[in-house]
Amino acid sequence: MIKDDSSEHTTGVDTKMDILNATVELIREEGVGCATLRRIAEKADINLALVNYHFGSKEKLLSKAIGKLVATFDDAFAVLDDESQEPIERLKLFYYRYLSHLQQYPGLAKEIMDQSRLICCSQHEFARYSKVMKTEKMISTLREITHESDETVLSGMMVQLHGAVFYPVIMKSYMNAAGDEPAPEIHLPELKQQIEMLFSLYFHKYKQS
């Protein structure tokens, strides 16, 4: 009699997905720093040893989980490929969609800097991360807007824009997680208005006729 091991195989696959999904949820809700193996196992309702069995190490699991989180931003990155729109409008819409997603994940916003440290820990990982995050496409879009040819200048502009658009979201996340002390009340314009304000100031000399 041939043993039917399909149910055993399915259970293994399901357990692996449960672990991955639990890790994603922890990062979304509380950040990478809170995604300990013990908490992941508790959230997935599995034995701690199964985490290493299925993923080999915490680092590999976190890399997979962050990759899955990044994939949820695909609709934002897709805008950068829509050449039917003017490059400055593509970039505006990219940031709006990306930040709209990010606001749903307070833990991810709070840990955005640690996220880059985790997945850019080697030259190979940095290259992979840059490809996933469409860094080249963003620089290409900036080149279309500004007609700048110096790659160092373009990279600097991208970093400055990232800092300007991400800072309010990240700071809000930190203040909301500050603990017992009430966070100072800061009134900001709606997200679309913030991006319009930034682009109006930053790209005023590149306005297309």
Automatic annotation (TrEMBL):
<dbReference type="Pfam" id="PF00440">
    <property type="entry name" value="TetR_N"/>
</dbReference>
<dbReference type="GO" id="GO:0003700">
    <property type="term" value="F:DNA-binding transcription factor activity"/>
</dbReference>
<protein>
    <submittedName>
        <fullName>TetR/AcrR family transcriptional regulator</fullName>
    </submittedName>
</protein>
<dbReference type="InterPro" id="IPR050109">
    <property type="entry name" value="HTH-type_TetR-like_transc_reg"/>
</dbReference>
<dbReference type="InterPro" id="IPR001647">
    <property type="entry name" value="HTH_TetR"/>
</dbReference>
<dbReference type="InterPro" id="IPR009057">
    <property type="entry name" value="Homeodomain-like_sf"/>
</dbReference>
<feature type="DNA-binding region" description="H-T-H motif">
    <location>
        <begin position="36"/>
        <end position="55"/>
    </location>
</feature>
<feature type="domain" description="HTH tetR-type">
    <location>
        <begin position="13"/>
        <end position="73"/>
    </location>
</feature>
<keyword id="KW-0805">Transcription regulation</keyword>
<keyword id="KW-0238">DNA-binding</keyword>
<keyword id="KW-0804">Transcription</keyword>
<dbReference type="InterPro" id="IPR023772">
    <property type="entry name" value="DNA-bd_HTH_TetR-type_CS"/>
</dbReference>
<dbReference type="GO" id="GO:0000976">
    <property type="term" value="F:transcription cis-regulatory region binding"/>
</dbReference>
